[in-house]
């Protein structure tokens, strides 16, 4: 179980490594390009080569890329879907060049069409992306907090999409704040066992390949996506201790996306907080 965080890749992905080291991260997440713009440039081989050399020097664990916030494969707007496919394929290409674990993306909204109406379209788009960019990097669907028409707030929906896509490069990222907001209580052993039993039944526990580790500013079942620093929110240090002690997470990397103690993003105090919990529960 490695403890990592989202860090800036400004100046190139190779620059992210020192930023991760600075806060004590053992792995990290980055954006390959601006998450709020469609444009994206391929990573030049010299940059990728430097990144790989720096990763080896630092002994970093797996990198993940986060997809653009604009992506909406469940939209009724064919132009938006096409742009989303191009953007995600570019991210998968970047992940392949870097040798990253994969790309995590939000399933986003079905835009009022209803989940059942977009299953085939969504699955077709993901298959198209992966067929267009062969390699080993995964495409990971992130659990949703459940606001509005967003897809993936239930494990049943994610499992339906995974089965419809039918590609071994598809996996899932569990965001602790999102599942909490969606009504999944992960703060006690009995309740966490029930949550993971449902995950295994609907998706398959072997497809849990990454965790976004975030405390929650809002209460259980709020459907509101609001992250808090580790130990400061409703999940709390005890909740994370319960989570991290469970064998299902033993070899799954954790990536912080918290606001940070100075509101500037994941920082050393949050990384250290997770490391302390990891040590307390005897997994690191």
Describe the structure in your own words:
The protein is α/β, with parallel strands linked by helices and 284 residues long. It has one domain (3-280): Divalent-metal-dependent TIM barrel enzymes (TIM Barrel, Alpha-Beta Barrel). It is 40% helix and 13% strand. It has nine helices and ten strands. It has helices at residues 15-22, 45-58, 78-98, 115-132, 155-165, 176-181, 189-202, 236-245, 268-280; strands at residues 3-6, 28-30, 64-66, 102-105, 138-142, 170-175, 208-213, 215-216, 227-228, 254-256. It has an eight-stranded parallel beta barrel, surrounded by four helices. Helix 4 links the parallel strand 4 (102-105) and strand 5 (138-142). Helix 1 packs parallel to helix 2 (45-58), helix 3 crosses helix 4 (115-132) and helix 4 (115-132) packs across helix 5. The longest helix is centred in the N-terminal third of the chain and has 21 residues, at 78-98. It is globular. The relative contact order is 0.14.
Distance between the termini: 7 Å
The CATH class, by name, is Alpha Beta
Q: Which CATH-level-2 architecture?
A: Alpha-Beta Barrel
Taken together, the total number of domains comes to: 1
Number of strands: 10
Q: Summarize the helix and strand pattern as letters.
A: EHEHEHEHEHEHHEEEHEH
Largest sheet: 8 strands, parallel, barrel
């Amino acid at each position: 179980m490695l403890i990592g965080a989202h860090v800036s890749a400004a100046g190139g992905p190779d620059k992210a490594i020192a930023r991760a080291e600075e806060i004590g991260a053992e792995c990290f997440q980055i954006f390959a390009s601006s998450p709020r713009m469609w444009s994206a440039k391929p990573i030049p081989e010299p940059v990728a080569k430097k990144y790989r050399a720096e990763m080896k020097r630092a002994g970093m664990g797996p990198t993940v890329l986060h997809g653009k916030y604009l992506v909406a494969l469940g939209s009724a707007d064919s132009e938006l879907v096409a742009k989303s496919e191009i953007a995600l394929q570019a991210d998968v290409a970047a992940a392949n060049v870097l040798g990253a674990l994969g790309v995590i993306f939000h399933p986003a909204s079905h835009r009022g069409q209803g989940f059942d109406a977009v299953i085939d379209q969504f699955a077709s788009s993901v298959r198209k992306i992966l067929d267009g960019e062969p390699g080993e990097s995964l495409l990971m669907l992130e659990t949703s907090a459940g606001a509005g028409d967003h897809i993936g707030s239930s494990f049943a929906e994610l499992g339906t999409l995974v089965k419809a896509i039918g590609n071994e490069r598809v996996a899932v990222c569990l965001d602790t704040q999102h599942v909490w907001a969606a009504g999944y209580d992960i703060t006690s052993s009995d309740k966490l066992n029930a949550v993971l039993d449902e995950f295994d039944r609907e998706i398959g526990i072997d497809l849990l390949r990454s965790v976004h580790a975030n405390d929650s500013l809002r209460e259980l079942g709020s459907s509101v996506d609001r992250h808090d620093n580790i130990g400061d929110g409703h999940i709390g240090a005890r909740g994370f201790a319960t989570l991290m002690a469970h064998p299902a997470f033993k070899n799954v990397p954790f990536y912080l996306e918290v606001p940070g103690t100075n509101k500037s993003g994941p920082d050393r105090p949050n990384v250290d907080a997770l490391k302390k919990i990891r040590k307390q529960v005897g997994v690191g």
